[in-house]
Amino acid sequence: MSPHAALRDGSRAVFKHVENSLDASFGPADNPLRHLGAMGLYFLWILSATGLYLYIVIDTSIEGVYSSIGHLSNEQWYFGGILRSLHRYATDAFIIVTFLHILREWAYDRYSGFRLFSWMTGIPLVWLLYMSAIGGYWIVWDRLAQFSALATAELFDWLAIATEPAARNFLVPEAVSDRFFTFLVYIHIGFPLFLILGAWAHVNRISGVDHMPAKRLAWGSFLALLVLALALPAHSDAQADLMQVPLDTRIDWLALFVNPLMYETSAGTVWALVFGFTLLLIALPLLPRGRPAPVAKVDAPNCNGCRRCYMDCPYAAVTMAPHPDKPKHQIAVVDADNCAACGICVGACPSSTPFRSGEELVTGIDMPQQPINALRRELEQRLAALTGRTRIVVFGCASGAAVDRLAGPDTAALTLICSGMLPPSFVEYALRGGADGVLVTGCREGGCPFRFGDQWTAARLARSREPHLRVQVPASRLREFRADPTDAAALAAALAEFRTDLETATGDDNRLVPYHRRTVHHVH
Amino acid sequence: MSIKPAAIAGQVVLYGAFAAFIGFFATNPRYQHIPPDHSLVKLSLAHFGDRECRKRTPEELQKLPPNMRAPLECPRERSALSIEMDIDGKSVYKGIIQPTGLSKDGISTVYRRFELPAGEHQLAVRMSDNVREPGFKYVKEDKVTLKPAQVLVIDFNPDKGGLFFQ
Ligand code: HEM
Ligand code: SF4
Ligand code: SF4
């Protein structure tokens, strides 16, 4: 394993551990680490709303800007002051969740292949975020603004793009004009607008975007910022005076760290870091990696155009087109560049039912690396081999806790690419083929690497999403248990408990009518 | 779904830690840009260097179309600036500043910062805008008293008599 892969996988283990422990307090739906992108967008909305108010009330002349912002904090602390503080702190919160978001996507190895688009479109957002944040601090035109404006100008002068040093604009008070402030305000509106546009592009290739944190998470983080705004309201420093060096500056280290960093090191070092980080992000997906898994394949005769795969695909990789052979019908078409090879579409397809009579089960949309026909055959063989009093079939997924270790004389274990690949009819098929119970397991809530596998499976088994589990299947014979790879012991315990429940509580009267395909015993 | 008191406590602690982290790093630790008893001198000039113009001879002028008979022939290229600066008799800067622009016809600029302890200093700046001529056309020398945190700017403006301190 390369050092990079080792570092990445180590970071993933840390992330998983922290995420799982946060689940205890927040629950997966409100766990901030599981919704970092949505948190970022949420802070962006808070920034837009508070910023709009600030824009309306401040005076953008060089004389007026400082006092009009000061007025908000001093005379109107109960409203304008709070909004100003929220604007400042939401920026910092945005920066924190953005870096965590990058780190997490990297740790989970989510930056190449079908995710390349999301990854690459994310990179300019960091630049836009920083340019917006740094520019915002200048508008106040206090000592901090003066320090940051001059430092940033000197930083850009090092690149020597402009003919005249930008720092000369902040040389003496006469050099700074009203026009500069109007310009600044437009910059500080322009960059955020590009940021919003960029964020829209960033999530353009995925469907069902997690664009807003759940209610509790949204309120929790808003209240945290509000309490902070009340406890430590944002205040301006003394008014800018270009003939005085700002000493002892109160710096926002999250937003403005490049400014002091330049004086402590050099402009060259700062640029090396900034461009180095950007290039690193660009280069990561280009590192050599194994061949990508084969993408989903549609079989025209078995596709009736029902659109279920289209609705369930987490990466908008399925589109619908006119069917070549069936007039007035549609057919699913897979965009190979977008396909994550997750198999969720296979679980969605009505043609995936194992109760079909053909010797060879061919479904509408299938995964070449684990075709549904092979899955049925494997299930039939394992069922036939089961012995013991209480026979259980476990369906697991490659990203969750490993299930093969649970296999034994009375337990069959099958691993799918993603639990979302399981057609609910397979549960009924297992029960009618000789199993006493079926245990379905997969990643913890919100932990699916393919975004929706766990959700769709849970909904299909709960009969709230198509294709649903038929009502004949008794609830007592189906158990669902979420388990990450680190939860192997808990999964084993859940299996034991299920077995006990089946043996003690479940009578024989709710057994389904057995069903055996005629060919089943001739399988070799 | 109701949540357990322990979970609520956990959430409060974590949200609190998030807010405290932001609250701290939004203003702390304070940054000392320069030591408190120091001041800053900035040498910052922007000036077009001289052009090496040549008087055209009457014969040359005769050959030109009437509307182009300018008495001087000036190349686009400008001279670099030569600048020197001493603080308390010690040379701190010596430079030849090339004109900007592809055809070297743009402005020449320099921007340098010097941190000095506050107090009295002897500053001397010399500039020539034509490196072919010997010596310095513009010279400014003065004793200055710098207060802590003061910024002193050395600039050039022909309308203000050349080099000046501000
Ligand atoms: C700065 C603001 C950013 C915002 C507001 C943002 C927001 C989001 C959102 C809302 C999602 C969708 C999450 C989901 O529905 O599962 C997402 C996904 C993603 N983001 Fe960002 N993002 C930002 C920056 C970045 C950056 C800088 C990178 C990396 C360089 C990045 C990499 C990704 C990747 C790879 C995904 C896809 C996840 C997947 O396919 O499973 N993002 N982002
Ligand atoms: S395998 Fe996954 S990503 Fe590919 S088409 Fe099917 S559902 Fe979409
Ligand atoms: S779910 Fe199956 S039948 Fe429906 S459109 Fe997709 S491939 Fe075709």
Describe this protein's structure.
The complex is a heterodimer of chains A (524) and B (166). Chain A has 524 residues and is of the alpha/beta class. Chain A contains 17 helices and 8 strands. The mean pLDDT of chain A is 90. Chain A has 2 domains: 264 residues, Cytochrome Bc1 Complex, Chain C; 207 residues, no CATH class. Chain A has a 4-stranded parallel β-sheet with strand order 6-5-7-8, with helices on both faces. Chain A has a two-stranded antiparallel sheet with strand order 1-4. In chain A, strands 2-3 form a two-stranded antiparallel sheet. In chain A, helix 6 packs across helix 10. Chain B is α+β, with helices and mostly antiparallel strands. Chain B has a domain of 103 residues: Immunoglobulin-like. Chain B has a 4-stranded mixed β-sheet with strand order 6-1-9-10, with no helix packed on it. In chain B, a hairpin with a 4-residue loop joins strand 9 and strand 10. The longest helix of chain B has 21 residues. The radius of gyration of chain B is 28 Å and the shape is elongated. The N and C termini of chain B lie far apart (69 Å). The relative contact order of chain B is 0.20. The mean pLDDT of chain B is 84. The chains are: A alpha/beta (524), B alpha+beta (166). At the A-B interface, helix 1, helix 4, helix 6 and helix 8 of A face helix 1, strand 1 and strand 9 of B.
SSE diagram, text form:
The complex is a heterodimer of chains A (524) and B (166).
Chain A (H helix, E strand, L loop, with lengths): L2 H24 L9 H22 L6 H11 L2 H31 L8 H24 L3 H17 L18 H25 L12 H17 L21 H4 L1 H7 L2 H17 L13 E2 L9 H5 L5 E5 L7 E5 L9 H5 L16 E2 L5 H14 L6 E6 L13 E6 L8 H8 L4 E6 L10 H9 L16 E5 L5 H17 L20
Parallel strand pairs in A: 5-6, 5-7, 7-8
Antiparallel strand pairs in A: 1-4, 2-3
Helix pairs in contact in A: 2-4, 2-7, 3-4, 4-8, 5-6, 5-7, 6-10, 6-11, 10-11
Chain B lengths: L4 H21 L12 E10 L6 E2 L2 H6 L8 E2 L7 E7 L2 E8 L10 E10 L1 E10 L9 E9 L4 E7 L4 E4 L1
Parallel strand pairs in B: 1-9
Antiparallel strand pairs in B: 1-6, 2-3, 4-5, 4-7, 7-8, 9-10
Bound molecules: protoporphyrin IX containing FE and iron/sulfur cluster (2 copies).
One iron/sulfur cluster binds next to helix 12 of chain A.
